Every structure is written in C-alpha cells, then in structure tokens.
Amino acid sequence: MENIDDNTKKKISKLQMLEQRLQSFAMQKQSFQTQSMESDNALKEIDNSDDTYKVVGNVMISVDKAKLKEELTSKKEMADMKISNLEKEEGKLREEASELQKEVMESMKNEQ
Predict the structure, then answer these.
(1) Residue-by-residue pLDDT tens, the chain, 112 positions
(2) What is the CATH number of domain 6-111?
(3) Is 46 helix (H, G, I), strand (E, B) or coil?
C-alpha cells in the first residue's frame, strides 16, 4: 500500500467508511423489521381476543381494543416507513461504493 497515491488511499478510506455505514443500515433495518413483525403479530392476536392489555413500565393495564389496534398499526406503519427510507439510502450508498470501488481498482491497475 506504500506505492499507492494519496488520492487512491483517500478513496479506499472512504470506501471503508461506506461499508461501515452499510453495515449500520443493515442492523437498523433488521431492528425495524423486527418491530414491524412484532406489531403485525400483535395485531393478529388482538383480532382473536376479547380483552386487550398493554404493558406500561412494570404494570399490565387493560386498554380499549380499538385504541390498541390503532396504536399498533401506527407503530407498524412507522417501522415500515423507516425500513423503506433505509432501503433507499442503502441503495444510494451501494451505488456510491460500487463506483468508488471501480475507481480504486482502475487506479491500482494503472499504478502497476
């Protein structure tokens, strides 16, 4: 790596940062997907039950079925929206990383 020019080193460094951001996005996306699935499962269970309860702190309280359903639906929609936004950002980063990788490979090929 000693015979690589400074510009190529900067590109390699930027590429590594992009890869780290992509990993971070993947973890965030997985977290939101889990939230979405949990909300979806809870919504299905609500339909099959007469009484609904919600955990608040260390206490489980009885809540209105319609209100809880609305709350869970909102939570699921928010998680799905965040997943969609992360996927868009992830796509942009992947394109940028791919382009940068091509530039780095070309630079290294030319330096040999």
Answers:
(1) 567 788 888 999 999 999 999 999 999 999 999 999 999 999 999 988 889 999 999 999 999 999 999 999 999 999 999 999 999 999 999 999 999 999 989 888 887 6
(2) 1.10.287.370
(3) helix
